[in-house]
Design brief:
Elements: H1 2-9, E1 15-20, E2 26-29, E3 40-41, E4 49-51, E5 55-62, H2 72-89, E6 95-96, E7 117-119, E8 122-132, E9 135-142, H3 148-166, H4 177-191, H5 194-197
Parallel strand pairs: 2-3
Antiparallel strand pairs: 1-5, 2-4, 5-9, 6-7, 7-8, 8-9
Helix pairs in contact: 1-4, 2-3
């Protein structure tokens, strides 16, 4: 969460996509949720997400390269189309939720909304947003278990699909030592602090 915040605060590029996996079971909650499960509060909204075998991502972009900066539904739909194509390359054929449904649960994958991605009757992709001026941070996760080869295919395809949509070239970048230092400081002072995690 801290790394995503560092990327969002320092964003000055055309777009940033970060994909990652988890080394154990963790839970994150949306910014406005009450914390009943010893979870870490995200900077973005949305509902509770239980992480372990999912692939998570953060996507940061401004109005310079994203036509839907003020349209959440179109943003989610476009991102989920890129995820859908990437999953198809790994052998998983998904579909979009046909009927609009309102939120009925506090857990993301148990709550069905417009633009959700479905596989065999269950939700497998969800996203949440934070906007600052003309830039947005999207955090999301894909809940289909992939082997290592499939993960590599997914990461590359997801990035390519988004880059193609924005007509941008892909370049890989590692976190700088300063970005790591900043994220460690934010992780300790914010995301590891009850003042943040229990604020509601």
């Amino acid at each position: 969460m801290a790394l995503d915040e560092v990327l969002f605060d320092g964003f000055a590029q055309s777009a940033v996509l970060r994909t990652y996996t988890w080394d154990d079971a963790y839970t994150t909650i949306g910014y406005f949720q009450k914390n009943d499960c010893n979870a870490v509060r995200r900077l973005t909204g949305g509902l509770t997400v239980n992480h372990k075998d999912d692939i998570s991502y953060s996507f940061i972009v401004s109005s310079a390269n994203w036509p839907f900066i003020y349209n959440e539904n179109e943003t989610y739909k476009t991102l989920h189309k890129a995820i859908q194509k990437a999953l198809l390359e790994t052998g998983f054929e998904t579909s979009f939720l046909e009927d609009k449904q309102s939120a009925v649960n506090t857990v993301c994958v148990q709550t069905l909304c417009e633009s959700d991605l479905m596989y065999k009757g269950r939700k497998v992709a969800g996203s949440c947003m934070r906007r600052r001026g003309n830039k947005i941070l999207i955090q999301g996760s894909v809940h289909i278990i992939l082997n290592e080869k499939q993960k590599d295919i997914f990461h590359c395809s997801f990035a390519k699909n988004l880059a193609d949509f924005m007509k941008l070239e892909i370049s890989e970048k590692d976190f700088t030592p300063e970005e790591i230092r900043q994220s460690e400081k934010i992780a300790e002072e914010k995301y590891g602090n009850d003042n943040w995690n229990l604020k509601y």
